[in-house]
Write a structure and sequence with these properties.
It is a single chain. The protein is an all-alpha fold. The protein has one helix at 51-76. The chain has a domain at 48-76. Residues 1-46 are annotated as: Disordered. The chain crosses the membrane at residues 54-76.
């Protein structure tokens, strides 16, 4: 199996100037210059945590902490 180099040979590539440069107009422009071309992002309606999920998380943490303390006291006594 022979290896074929995927890179083009600079001597046989059309459109190259001496030294490897490309003349103006040979390549397409990178992007258009239209400002705000895309849709605007909606503003965030909620900020921070809501009270209900935060309360549920705190209650669960307290239940787990009390469970660990009860288990530790049961091992000691």
């Amino acid at each position: 199996m022979s290896y074929v180099n995927p890179d083009p040979e600079p001597d046989r590539t059309p459109g190259l100037e001496p030294g490897g440069g490309v003349p103006p107009g040979e390549t397409p422009p990178a992007e258009s210059s239209m400002p705000e071309a895309g849709p605007r992002e909606p503003e965030a309606t909620t900020r921070g945590w809501a009270k209900a999920p935060l309360t549920i998380i705190l209650v669960l943490v307290l239940v787990v902490a009390v469970g660990f303390l009860t288990y530790a006291l049961a091992l000691i006594l």
